[in-house]
Amino acid sequence: MSSFDNKITARAHTNIALIKYWGKQNAKLKIPTTNSFSLTLDKFYTETSVTFKENYTADRIIFNGKPLSDSKAARIVALLDVIRGMANQDIYAEVNTTNMVPTSAGFASSSSGFAALAAAACKSIGLNLSKKELSRVARRGSGSACRSIYGGFVEWHKGLGDRTSFASPFNEQPDWNLNVIAVMVNQAEKTMSSTKGMEISKKTSPYYNAWKQVCKNDLKNIKKAIKNRDFEKLGSISEENAMRMHALTLSASPDYTYFDGKSLQVIKTIQSLRSNGIPCYFTMDAGPNIKVLVEPQNTDKVVQELKSLFSTDQIVVAAPGPGIEYL
After folding, report:
1. CB–CB of 219/231 below 8 Å?
2. 8-174 to CATH, choices 1.10.760.10, 3.40.50.10860, 3.50.50.60, 3.30.230.10
3. Three-class SS of residue 60?
4. Distance in angstroms (rounded) separating the CA atoms of residues 157 and 146
5. Neighbours of 295 (CB within 10 A)
6. pTM for this one?
7. Which residue from 17, 6, 8 is spatially nearest to 285, judged by alpha carbons?
C-alpha cells in the first residue's frame, strides 16, 4: 500500500443564508462583497470519500454512483488542484460523492458538497487544518461552503483577500428550538446559475450599493435577535433580506428571477398564516424552493397548510444541524 492510499469520508450539512451572499469582490478567490450569516440544517447533507493514490494518472470523480463528465467535474478538480498546491503534492484522487440535497435548485447543495470535499481531501492528502483554515479551502470551491464547516448559526467574514475571508461560528449549538420547513416546489436545475446571476446583479442593478449597507445593518440586528431569542425579529430580518436580494435580480439588466408560480403560492400562504396569528417567515435563495422559519409549537399548523398545496414528499421539516463530521 502506498503512503497515500488513505480513504477519508466526510459529511457536511447544507446551510441556509439568513443574511444573503450575493456578489463577489474577487470571483477567482470567491471573496464576497458583504459578510453573510447562515443556519446549518440537519436534514440535507453530502457525504464524500476521497482517496489520493500514487498510481492514478487522472482524478476520478463519481457523483451519486455515476462518473461525472470532465466539464461537470471541473469545479471539483479545481478545488483538488488548490489542495494539491497546499500540500505540495502532484498526485491524483478518486472522489465519491453522495448528495442528499437537490442539486442546483437553490438548496445550497454546493455548500455541503464543497465543504465535504474540502474536509475529506485535505485530510486524505495529509493536511491537518483547523476549521478556520478548512473554511477558507471550502470557500475556493463554493463561497457558501465555508459556512457548512460549522453547525448552527455561522458568519462568513468577507475579508479583503484569501487569508481574511473565512467563516466562524456565532452559535454552533443553539439552545433554541427552531424549525426550518423546506418546501421543494421545483427540483429542476435552475437556468440562471448563482455565479452568473451574482455577476449580472453586481454589474447592472442600480440598487447594488444600497444592498451592501442593507446586509451590514441586517447582520448587526439578526445577531441581537438571536441573543435575545426574539423569533419574530429573526424571521422578519431573514425574510426582508431575502426579498431585497431578489430585488437585485429583478432590477438587473437583463432582469431575471428565481421565483416561479408555486414559490409565490408558498409566500402568500406564509403571509396569510402570519396575519392569522401564527409567526412564520420565509426565505429563498437562488432557486424557486422556499424555506420557512417557524417555532416547533407552530410547525404542524404550517405543514398542514402547505400540504393543501404540495405532496408530503415535497415538504421536509429540518432543525439546526452540525458542522463537518468524519465518518
Report:
1. no
2. 3.30.230.10
3. strand
4. 10
5. 17
6. 0.93
7. 17
Q: Which of 295, 291, 13 is nearest to 178 (CA)?
A: 295
Distance CA 237, CA 300 (A): 23
Q: Give the length of the chain.
A: 327
Q: CB–CB of 121/50 below 8 Å?
A: yes
Using the predicted structure, report yes or no on whether residue 94 has a pLDDT greater than 80: yes
Q: Of 268, 251, 249, 258, nearest to 309 (Cα)?
A: 268
pLDDT single digits (tens) 208-230: 999 999 999 999 999 999 999 99
pLDDT one-digit tens code per residue, 124-154: 999 999 999 999 999 999 999 999 999 999 9
Q: Compute the average pLDDT of residues 63-73.
A: 92
Domain ranges of the chain: 8-174, 179-318
- Return the amino acid letter for 291: K
Please say whether the structural domain 179-318 has been given the CATH code 3.30.70.890.
yes
Residues contacting residue 97 through CB under 8 Å, at least 6 positions apart: 46, 47, 48, 49, 61, 62, 63, 64, 113, 116, 117
- For the record, the C-alpha cell of 21 comes out as 451572499
CA 150 to chain centre: 12
Are 105 and 188 within 8 A, CB to CB?
yes
What pLDDT is recorded for position 104? 47
